[in-house]
Amino acid sequence: MRSIEDLLEELPFTKALSPEHRALIASCGQNRAFRAGEYVFRTGEPADWFFLIRKGRVALEVYGPTRGALTVETVGEGDVLGWSWLFEPYVYSFDARVVRDTRVIAFDGACLRGKADADHELGYQLMRGMARVFTDRLEATRMQLLDVYGDHASS
Amino acid sequence: MPAAEPDSCALTPRAATVRRVWQETHDSWSLELEDPGAPGASPGQFNMLYAFGVGEIPISFSGDLAEITRPVHTVRAVGAVSRALCALTPGSSLGVRGPFGAGWPLEAARGGDLVALAGGIGLAPLRPLLYAALAQREAFRRVVLLYGARAPEELLYPAELDAWRADHELEVFVTVDAATSNWHGDVGVVTNLISKANLDPDTLTAYTCGPEIMMTFCARRLVAAGVPESSVHVSLERNMKCAVGWCGRCQLGSQFVCRDGPVLPFAQAAPLMAVREL
Amino acid sequence: MQATAPSVRMERSDFPRLFEALQAAGYAVFGPTLRDEAIVYAELEGADQLPAGWTDEQGPGHYRMRRRGDDKLFGYAVGPHSWKQLLHPPEQRVWRAERDANGRIQFVPEALAAPPRAFLGVRACELAAIRVQDRVLREGALADGGYAARRAAAFLVAVECSDPAATCFCTSTGTGPGVEAECDLVLTEVCEADEHYFLVAAGSERGRDVAAQLPLREASADERAAGRAVVAGAAARITRQLPQAGLPEALAQALEHPRWDDVAERCLTCGNCTLVCPTCFCTTVEDTSDVSGAVAERWRRWDTCFSLDFSHLHGGSVRASNRSRYRQWLTHKLSTWHEQFGSSGCVGCGRCIAWCPVGIDITEEAAALRQEPGHAQH
């Protein structure tokens, strides 16, 4: 049975942290597993957790009454899930539905925030890591928005 | 103990005439009616409009309700009845029942900022609210419209938006989801406009109308910024046939959207909107 | 006002006199009769059309007629019909419209027509169901004039239950088997080896007028006790229970309970339950026109929340899944109805259980939904 620290050594988001920082955040983490069809979190729920996906696939969904559930993105092995723990009001904005049986390391958001407040170097590294995730996702989202495969005759 | 109001007034349309029809966007038209039998209505309410032999649908008032015998309705032609209504010519007859529904609580904004957030055709049910606010402009501090549409050509009432901007009574912020370089305005989702408008969460009342996903994101963004859920009002849409709470179709939880809504405070609507397929 | 305790009796052989008295007072009599292997409500000419000597055997998805050993006139529970088909008819014209050569439209609302009718054989649960529909259609902000007229023109002859079905659960919903609600006449059938009579009580002025035409004599203390025993016996034979305490709140908290997935696998969304339910009131509207395009009509018809069309908006139906439609029906009936109309929508008649082709049992589903998810059911 490998420790959380060992697992963090392999995951892309935490690989680049120093061993001391990994140890610090490992104490906020725990292993969790979800079955396909379950929800990791739902829109509007308190965003108490931050997840690193070890294995599996999760779909981020928005629901509309006649359109049903729309998947805006899927995340999988090595990806970050849930960033609403970073900023108030700490509420999830999407539904996270498990597509394939998934294993994660779940970090207690308040614990992480506490560690980051106490150790600003750790805080800076976490923010850098999150910022990288955001810029990648933003670029991807913009491309999705362009509807590049659609039939766009010039007007 | 029967109620005072005879139901035949509520279930049987009165005949009205089309005065003018004009196209707004590629799939929406506005109709100005001559409806001498119209009782007074308030912003956010709707009429049931009947196209002879085709059917009847709920359409919000979208004009100035001071002119109640000359109501304006903006209709999106997406089904048999709406297409039939949009195809009516001046002088045609149609059936009107109404007004129905709980409208926008304008009084709630008195003394503070009135903020309307419109998405797409959602501007139509909000326009009467803006007219009513402008008619007693001194009752409010800021009157702000945040309006988002899919593309520039989908914007409703563009000339009016310019006119409002020009006379400074109403602050207008417009954005579109995507545009070509011919568009010099903002591009981005309507929630971006919330921070752009520099709103004071403590003194504003917000009224939002548009696709449900858009209203939910706007409302949650406002709440995250410190606006109480009870100060945000949404306008919901459900299948309606009778518009008086008898056919049962418009229920959302315990609420009859035709009668308890379509306008509901977000504090009440949020838990209902959060349950899928409720 | 409530019916006074029955203190007079009428012989079973004099039952035709009740028909005569009602007809003489101008009422067309509607009551139970055996047709197509079920006890249904139809217009009756005389007492010989009553289902004497028949009873019903009911269970989940099961309804059979069985011959009784005796000759009771009302020795059954309830059939697929309810009185809503007369008070809130399956189809009604709402208005008619004509368009003249100049295109001008004239709308003519349907005139209210409510011929006087006597409903014979109204069960306690059915009286409760009528009261439930009163609150929906007559006592809201807007009154359905047609319903109110038909309701006022209905003379209610209640008959207390002696033979509940296995599907009945009126004792849970507090709606029977004894009649306590407002009606015009209440009858209790006492059928013993050597005697067969009805205890009669009037609950209104017009009830008293009709009773005055009947051959009645004072009932003895024993006879009155026999009447009470009929009802007590019926109550004792009811086996089904609907959990009551805190049910509306529990269901409101259970909107994502896994049980909904379970029932969704069984439910066909056929809507039979809504057809037979005496309190379901939902309708649709059908706009028609003739070939010339000069005449149009609007009809109001029974509809069911189980249809996809019921929640249709441009783009799709809000309740697309079976799961959501069954949930809507059950949570409306047992939970949100309270907030809307101040009572439960369910009167414990059990019709939905018997007439569900797959035998879904509302009492079983409600009990399962009250349990924390993960507790073994069945």
Q: Would you spell out the secondary-structure blueprint of this structure?
A:
The complex is a heterotrimer of chains A (155), B (278) and C (378).
Chain A: H1 4-10, H2 12-15, H3 19-26, E1 29-34, E2 39-41, E3 49-64, E4 68-76, E5 80-81, E6 95-108, H4 109-118, H5 120-145
Antiparallel strand pairs in A: 1-6, 2-6, 3-4, 3-5, 3-6
Helix pairs in contact in A: 1-3, 4-5
Chain B: H1 7-11, E1 14-25, E2 28-34, E3 46-51, E4 55-60, E5 72-76, H2 80-86, E6 93-100, E7 113-119, H3 123-135, E8 143-149, H4 158-167, E9 171-176, E10 186-187, H5 192-196, E11 204-209, H6 212-224, E12 232-235, E13 251-252, E14 255-256, E15 263-265, H7 266-273
Chain C: E1 8-11, H1 15-24, E2 28-35, E3 38-43, E4 54-59, E5 62-67, H2 84-87, E6 91-99, E7 105-109, E8 117-122, H3 124-137, H4 145-152, E9 154-159, H5 170-173, E10 185-191, E11 196-202, H6 205-211, E12 217-218, H7 221-237, H8 247-252, H9 259-264, H10 272-276, E13 283-289, E14 295-302, E15 312-313, E16 316-317, H11 322-341, H12 351-355, H13 362-370
Parallel strand pairs in C: 2-8, 8-9, 9-10
Antiparallel strand pairs in C: 1-11, 1-12, 2-3, 4-5, 6-7, 6-14, 10-11, 13-14, 15-16
Structural overview:
The complex is a heterotrimer of chains A (155), B (278) and C (378). With 155 residues, chain A is of the alpha+beta class. In chain A, 35% of the residues lie in helices and 32% in strands. Chain A has helices at residues 4-10, 12-15, 19-26, 109-118, 120-145; strands at 29-34, 39-41, 49-64, 68-76, 80-81, 95-108. In chain A, α4 (109-118) crosses α5. The mean pLDDT of chain A is 90. Chain B is of the alpha/beta class and 278 residues long. Chain B has 2 domains: 8-100, Translation factors (Elongation Factor Tu (Ef-tu), domain 3); 106-273, Rossmann fold (3-Layer(aba) Sandwich), CATH 3.40.50. Chain B has 7 helices and 15 strands. A 7-stranded mixed β-sheet of chain B has the order 10-9-8-7-11-12-15, sandwiched between helices. In chain B, β8, α4 and β9 form a beta-alpha-beta unit. The longest helix of chain B is centred in the middle third of the chain and has 13 residues, at 123-135. The two termini of chain B are 33 Å apart. The relative contact order of chain B is 0.14. Chain C is α+β, with helices and mostly antiparallel strands and 378 residues long. Chain C folds into 2 domains: 8-237, no CATH class; 247-370, no CATH class. Chain C is 30% helix and 24% strand. Chain C contains 13 helices and 16 strands. In chain C, the strands form 4 sheets. Chain C has an 8-stranded mixed β-sheet with strand order 3-2-8-9-10-11-1-12, sandwiched between helices.
